[in-house]
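Notes from the 1:1 (GR / supervisor)

We went over the backlog. Supervisor wanted to see one worked example end to end before approving the batch request, so GR pasted a single chain during the call. The sequence is below; no edits were made to it. Supervisor asked that the structure be written out right there so they could see what the output format looks like.
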Amino acid sequence: MKVCQQNNKLIVTSDRELDEKEIVSFFALDDDMEKCNASIALNLFLRSAISRYSGIRILRQAPVEAIISYICAQNKNIPAIERMISELSCKYGLRRELDGIVFYTLPTMEDLTRLSLRKLCEAGLGYRAKYLVCSAKKLVQCDTFTEKIENMNYFQAWQSIAFGNMKLAGVGPKVADCILLYGFNMMEAFPIDVWISRSFTTALAELVDRDEMDFLRVECDKKMKIDKSTYLRMGNLARRIFKNYSGYAQLYTYMYSKDYFRYF
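Structure output shown during the call:
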């Protein structure tokens, strides 16, 4: 798929036939952003974030694509993730060409189960190779895996893939939230990474009880990975405030925090 914007029009070219509904769904163009933004704009930080990044959308990726992408994304910055996904696709995906541009699909889960750890490490996955193969085998063995997740509520799904009997190898609290937000459109998900930890008490200023905020400020200032209990506590606070717009609140906060806290 090749996408560009001309004024207020989105121009989409694909190597397969697409209907308008598919495009609207993938780019979340049917999300009511006016209502969403009004529900999130609860303090100066969030209003500023919305003003700067108005127009963002949470893409609705295919579940398997999201699982592969976010297992690979652990402890990597965005440029490194892009290189890793590109290398994985070039080596083991299918070659495609569109308007003279060559690109490659992600390998399927079946393909991944047939690859050795050595071959995956050649794509730069490192320790993530083992996680990816184990998760691929789980999805291949249970061909209704994604359907089962889709039929769960958010918390059931989060608990299942991060800690439960449907656990995906290498998937902890944050990666589970990313998979559910982008691969399953569970908008209650609120992934917490270093940028969210750094900005959390500022982003939720005036919205949370002072004692609670003081506790979280101390936890987030420890300069170490927060534990499951604190992760849940922060996520539940966000969900209490933002409800079904938590995913968008997280994305606005993440984007704006990278500017706001860059020099702190």
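Supervisor's comment: The chain has a mean pLDDT of 90.
Batch request approved.
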